[in-house]
């Protein structure tokens, strides 16, 4: 049993020296942080990007409010993230996958956040997996109307079908946001098309009249779909905390 007397990083080593039958085991090291507060990072989905694109706005926040660091972990040699009044990405000049890393190191009271990785493809403008606007997507399916229109009367707006990569003319194809309650929290499952230029936020409210951005915990990102319809499925958790009257929703907005 471990007993903690203060805050900081704890490193634990486990070893087994063996006996006359068994060789010694390789030592196993584990470390964790003792802190007053835990935190996590929310990294908004990033769509596939056209080669050479610049000024791609990234929305990345920590639940603690402490500043987040974002960098290119893998990409073109000229891929770069800048942070002046907000994070912006220049995707670079190569057709390839880009991986972005978001970290927050914590402070004297707050533990470091788990690193979050965000992946997307840099593609040619005419590639089958290239990003496309809502209007271009509407033209592919020969539909019209504003974002609230529901062409196949399945209860899901055309804009949400655009965001999630489903067919707005087939009522059986829609992929809806789902939510379950798990241990004092709500877990949202949110499908997002890598071809859709959308903002994806979880918003919260006490009154249903004024909504603000939440910073949900990103539990998992699943890669799915096909070459011409690549999808990511995000699992996001929001804690109910002490305010049981809170309301949450997933909001899709145009970029």
Quick structural summary:
The protein is 5% helix and 42% strand.
**Shape by Cα distribution:** globular
Mean pLDDT: 91
The succession of helices and strands, N to C, reads: EEEEEEEEEEEHHEEEEEEE
Q: Structural class, judged by helices and strands? A: mainly beta
How many alpha or pi helices?
A: 2
* Major pleated sheet: 4 strands, mixed
- Sheet-strand content, in percent, reads 35-45%
Please give the order of strands in the largest beta sheet: 4-11-10-7
| Helix residue percentage | under 10%
Cα(first) to Cα(last) distance is 52 Å
**Rg of Cα set:** 22 Å
Number of strands: 18
Secondary structure elements and their pairing?
Elements lengths: L7 E7 L13 E7 L6 E3 L5 E2 L5 E3 L1 E3 L6 E6 L5 E4 L3 E4 L5 E8 L12 E8 L10 H7 L17 H7 L13 E5 L2 E9 L4 E8 L6 E2 L3 E9 L4 E10 L7 E8 L1
Parallel strand pairs: 4-11
Antiparallel strand pairs: 1-2, 3-6, 5-9, 7-10, 8-9, 10-11, 12-13, 13-17, 14-15, 14-18, 16-17
């Amino acid at each position: 049993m471990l007993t903690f007397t203060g805050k900081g990083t704890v490193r634990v080593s486990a070893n087994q020296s063996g006996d006359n039958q068994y060789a010694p085991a390789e030592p196993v090291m584990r470390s964790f942080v003792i802190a007053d507060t835990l935190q996590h990072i929310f990294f908004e989905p990033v769509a596939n990007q056209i080669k050479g694109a610049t000024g791609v706005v990234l929305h990345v926040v920590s639940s603690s409010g402490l500043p987040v660091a974002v960098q290119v972990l893998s990409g073109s040699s000229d891929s770069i993230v800048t942070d002046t009044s907000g994070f912006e990405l220049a995707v670079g000049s190569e057709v390839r996958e880009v991986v972005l890393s978001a970290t927050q190191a914590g402070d004297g009271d707050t533990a470091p956040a788990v690193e979050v990785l965000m992946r997307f493809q840099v593609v040619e403008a005419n590639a089958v997996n290239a990003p496309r606007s809502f209007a271009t997507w509407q033209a592919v399916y020969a539909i019209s109307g504003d974002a609230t229109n529901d062409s196949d009367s399945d209860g899901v707006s055309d804009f949400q079908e655009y965001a999630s990569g489903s067919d707005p003319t087939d009522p059986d194809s829609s992929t809806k946001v789902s939510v379950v309650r798990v241990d004092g929290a709500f877990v949202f499952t949110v499908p997002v098309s890598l071809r859709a230029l959308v903002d994806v936020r979880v918003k919260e409210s006490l009154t249903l009249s004024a909504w603000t951005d939440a910073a949900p915990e990103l539990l998992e990102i699943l890669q799915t779909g096909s070459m011409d319809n690549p999808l990511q499925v995000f699992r996001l958790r929001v804690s109910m905390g002490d305010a049981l009257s809170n309301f949450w929703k997933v909001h899709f907005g145009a970029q």
